[in-house]
Amino acid sequence: MGWVYVLAAAAWEIFGVIGLKLFSQKKSFARLVLFAGGFALSYLFLYWSLSYLDMSIAYATWMGLGTAGAVIVNMIFFGESKKISRIIGVGLIIIGVVGLKMVS
Q1: CA-CA to 28 of 20 to 30 Å: which in 3, 39, 55, 68?
Q2: Which residues, including other chains, have CB under 8 Å from residue 72's CB and lie 6 or more apart?
C-alpha cells in the first residue's frame, strides 16, 4: 500500500507543478487551487506512505518521480527544451527510482 501512496503523491506533485506554472502565467482562483491543492495532497499521500515505507525510500521515490513527471509534462505541454541530455537525465532518474524499489 505504501507504494500506491507514493505514486499518488508523485502524481499530485505533478498536478501541483502544473498549477504553479499556470498560476505564474495568469492568476486565477482555479489555478491557485490546482497549485496549492496538488502540493497539499502530494504531502498528504507522502505522509501516509511513511506508515509502510522507510522515509529515505519514500521521499527519494516521491521526489524522483515528481521531478521526472514535471520535466516530461513541461516538455510536452509548455514547450520546454526536449534536448537529448534532458531526456537522458529523466531516464536516469527513473532508473534510480526503479533501483530503490528493487532493493526495498
Answers
A1: 68
A2: 90
**Grid-cell match 502565467, residue found:** 25
Closest CA to 56 of 96, 16, 8, 13: 96
Report the alpha-carbon distance of residue 13 to residue 19 in Å, rounded. Answer: 10
- Cα(20)–Cα(34) distance, rounded to whole angstroms? 8
**Single-letter amino acid code for the residue at 37:** G
pTM assigned to the model: 0.88
* Single-letter amino acid, residue 91: G
What pLDDT does residue 102 have? 85
- In degrees, to the nearest 5, what angle opens at C-alpha 57 toward C-alphas 34 and 44? 30
How many whole angstroms separate alpha carbon 71 and alpha carbon 89?
Answer: 10
Per-residue pLDDT tens for 39-64?
999 999 999 999 999 999 999 999 99
